[in-house]
Write a structure and sequence with these properties.
Blueprint (H helix, E strand, L loop, with lengths): L20 H31 L24 H15 L5 H27 L7 H22 L7 E3 L7 E3 L4 H19 L7 H18 L2 H7 L10 H19 L8 H18 L3 H7 L1 H20 L9 H7 L4 H21 L5
Antiparallel strand pairs: 1-2
């Protein structure tokens, strides 16, 4: 919205600053952060009053989690509200990729909200049927995949770009749509599975989003893509505004989610953040890099898949409990230790992901 103030500029005054994506990204970050600080406590008070007993705690979960009974959920409303408001204020609203990422984020947030509401109202951990959530997620992802392909350069439509390998594209044709669906839905559910400890999911999501934001800015500039030998996707630079807003909103939420958490993000936040990461990956044609940058989420999801398949086949468990962060809890690791070490792993993976831009 504020970008249009640049039209008032003659090229040498204050309004000219709004032409620069980096300036608007800084504004988006601060706006979302302030939004979180202003509305965080009032939202928590409303959620606590409305929800009563708070988020139901799994009976088969670690014993330490029973101490968290009564903590309200749906804190993802704060993150989504902050990043949406900030993005609408600071991003170019004529950019289709901005609307695509917002569409995916808000749509998955609605699915998560319905699931959280069902859990709180029924006071059980089941919520909305997994099949219904999956079908809705697939529908949203199909729309997003077709949308992204329509605005990609013709030479990149239906193509999968390989990191590290210079100018290498795999023509997936019609299979690119289902592949994109797997990326978006898989990312949403992987972040959802990771959200099991105070602060565990939000920081890695912020780190991954920031990394993808830098990539989006780079692939949206001709000079950068020529230097880095990556594929140019016009318009993706504006995604940096969204990721900066996500980082600011995430920090605002983390202020209240730091151990001991005053609020949980719930599926409202985790599904929205995961869906956003997947959407950014397909927009920027860095789907495979997402698997590196979001490697922590991949491991969390794989731990559940391996546990379920191995148990069905043998009746035994690979991990003491899945997802894998619960395995370390069972081993005796303290919650802060697990969270901080997983943050460190996320940061290392982000650096590796960024390195793929130049290692060609």
């Amino acid at each position: 919205m504020l970008y249009w103030l640049a039209a008032l500029s003659d090229g040498g005054d204050f309004f000219n600053l709004f032409r620069y994506i980096t300036v608007r990204a800084g504004g988006a970050f601060l706006t979302a952060l302030i939004f979180g600080f202003i509305f965080g406590r009032p939202l928590i008070n409303v959620l606590r009053k409305r929800q009563g007993k708070g988020q139901p705690i799994r009976e088969d979960g670690p014993e330490s989690h029973f101490e968290k009974a009564g903590t309200p959920t749906m804190g993802g409303l704060l993150i989504v509200g902050a990043l949406t408001t900030s993005t609408l204020i600071w991003a170019r609203l004529d950019n289709p990729f901005v609307w695509l990422v917002l569409f995916v984020t808000i749509s998955f947030a609605i699915i998560g909200f319905a699931d959280d509401y069902a859990k709180v109202s029924k006071q059980n951990s089941k919520g909305v049927s997994g099949k219904i959530r999956m079908l809705l997620g697939i529908l949203i992802a199909v729309i997003a995949a077709i949308w992204a392909s329509a605005y990609h350069p013709e030479a990149l439509q239906g193509q999968l770009a390989l990191p590290v390998f210079k100018d290498t594209l795999i023509n997936m044709g019609l299979f690119y749509i289902p592949f994109s669906v797997i990326v978006i839905v898989g990312s949403a559910n992987a972040v959802n599975l990771t959200d099991g400890l105070d602060g565990l999911a939000i920081m890695p999501a912020m780190i991954a989003a920031s990394t993808l934001g830098i990539i989006a800015y780079a692939v949206g500039r001709v000079d950068f893509t020529e230097y880095l030998d990556v594929h140019y996707v016009p318009g993706t630079g504006e995604i940096l505004i969204f990721t900066a807003a996500l980082f600011g909103g995430g920090l605002g939420f983390l202020w209240y989610n730091a151990p001991p958490a005053a609020v949980f993000m719930g599926d409202t936040g985790s599904l929205a953040l995961g869906g956003a990461l997947g959407a950014i990956a397909i927009v920027t044609k860095h789907e495979l890099v997402l698997a590196i940058v979001g490697g922590l989420f991949v491991v969390e999801a794989l731990s559940v898949i391996i546990q379920v398949l191995y148990f069905k086949a043998t009746g035994k468990r690979v991990f003491l409990m899945a997802p894998i962060h619960h395995h370390y809890e069972k081993l005796g690791w303290s919650e802060p230790t697990i969270v901080i070490r997983f943050w460190i792993i996320s940061l290392i993976l982000a650096m590796i992901g960024l390195a793929t831009l130049k290692v060609r």
